[in-house]
Write a structure and sequence with these properties.
The complex is a heterodimer of chains A (about 200) and B (about 170). Chain A has about 200 residues and is mostly helical. Chain A has six helices and three strands; from the N terminus they run H-H-H-H-H-H-E-E-E. Chain A has a two-stranded antiparallel sheet. Chain B is globular, with a radius of gyration of 17 Å. The N terminus of chain B is likely disordered. Chain B contains one helix and ten strands. The chains are: A mainly alpha (about 200), B mainly beta (about 170). Chains A and B meet through helix 3, helix 4, helix 5, helix 6 and strand 1 of A and helix 1, strand 1, strand 3, strand 8 and strand 9 of B.
Chain lengths: ~200, ~170
């Protein structure tokens, strides 16, 4: 089923007709990746809102420094498939990541500061309710969760000839960087059966 | 709106990047240690704790041996309703001594300590190689403190995928 990004964005914004909504929901059922993209739009929206609020409150303009940083980083990133971001602010890296992933059609869920996490308007994952929360939690986990920590950062990733996505999975008390690399369908020289892979 | 200009700039930059080699960066504002991490012992050598999870839709739920890992309830991990702990391994982190771990799909995860920029803070690299030696994930460099984790997921395996949770521990 073909679904345009424009329609998906309008669905996210609640600006679709009932027929279009049904069409999108059918597509979401058939292609779970679309749901992830839908959620990425929500994350992007939270970034925009949080950044806009921060800018209006503090009259703090980082656009020039950000553009300078991007200009400095871009030439190094283009010849190879690895992007170094350690010299940039984490938020800058996050913004670049958001833009890059969406432009490339990848799925991205990123959040780097405490903007409220919106719920996507589309249908939730059909199977998420089936997850079972483990009941065994070590006693010292709670104390560790309260310990403020600077971010774990994926500084660079080389996907080689494959494709992949980097994003952050946010929960109530954690945000974890994720490198998602679907198999490229190229069989390894072993006996592993990947014919029924998702 | 100044942010709008910046978004456009980011998109423009993204369009100049090679598609297949799109390299991104992401950081988590707070990464919770896992149930198994425990409090770090300052004098112990660094190591990575690698959880190999098999995600499927077999309607079996989450293996309680995995411990607390709320990320599994979030997209895209929530697309799978079952997570089984296949292996939990501790790999020492030493400079110039890469550690290899055979994955269930025959590939090999390699981790290596790159640098210790400050106390309880390491830079490590990870890669995944096919049995033929050809790279699947040629290089991943991560900066993390003790207790922090990152996840590498997506490799197909037995009607599901592998989810590798890699955490820096002592």
């Amino acid at each position: 089923m073909s679904l345009s990004r424009e329609l998906l964005m309008r669905y996210h914004d609640g600006e679709v007709s009932p027929d279009e909504a049904r069409y999108v929901e059918d597509a979401l059922e058939q292609e779970p990746a679309l749901g992830e993209e839908l959620e990425a739009y929500g994350e992007l929206g939270s970034f925009v809102r949080a950044w806009g609020e921060a800018s209006s409150d503090a009259e703090f303009d980082i656009s020039d420094s950000v553009l300078d940083a991007i200009e400095q980083e871009a030439p190094r990133a283009m010849p190879v498939r690895t992007a170094r971001v350690r010299t940039l602010l984490p938020r800058v890296a996050t913004w670049v990541a958001v833009g890059a992933a969406i432009a490339a059609g990848s799925v991205l869920v990123v959040r780097s500061w405490s903007a409220p996490r919106p719920m996507p308007p589309g249908p939730a994952s059909a199977d998420s309710s089936a997850l079972v929360e483990p009941s065994v939690i070590p006693a010292d986990s709670a104390a560790l969760l309260e310990d403020p920590m600077t971010p774990a950062t994926i500084e660079s990733v080389d996907f080689g000839s494959n494709t992949g996505t980097v994003f952050v999975v946010s929960t109530d008390d954690s945000e974890t960087p994720v490198v998602w690399m679907p198999d490229d369908g190229e069989p390894d020289a072993d006996e592993t059966d990947r014919s029924e892979s998702l | 709106m100044k942010w709008a200009g910046f978004v456009c700039c980011s998109l423009a930059l993204a369009l100049t990047l090679p598609g297949s080699g799109l390299a991104l960066a992401a950081s988590g504002a707070k990464t919770a240690p896992s149930a198994s991490a425990g409090k770090p012992a300052p004098d112990q050598p660094f190591a990575t704790e690698v959880l190999i999870l098999h995600a499927t839709n077999d309607k079996k739920g989450v293996d309680p041996r995995i411990g607390k890992l709320p990320e599994l309830g979030k997209a895209p991990f929530s697309n799978y309703d079952s997570y089984e702990l296949v292996d939990r391994t501790r790999l020492p982190l030493k400079k110039d001594e890469p550690q290899n771990l055979k994955l269930p799909n025959g590939r090999t995860l390699q981790t290596r300590l790159l640098d210790v920029p400050e106390r309880d803070h390491v830079r490590i690299s990870a890669s995944i190689n096919r049995p033929t030696g050809k790279d699947f994930l040629p290089l991943l460099e991560v900066s993390a403190k003790v207790g922090q984790a990152f996840i590498v997921a997506g490799q197909s395996y037995k009607k599901g995928i592998l989810v590798l949770v890699i955490r820096v521990v002592r």
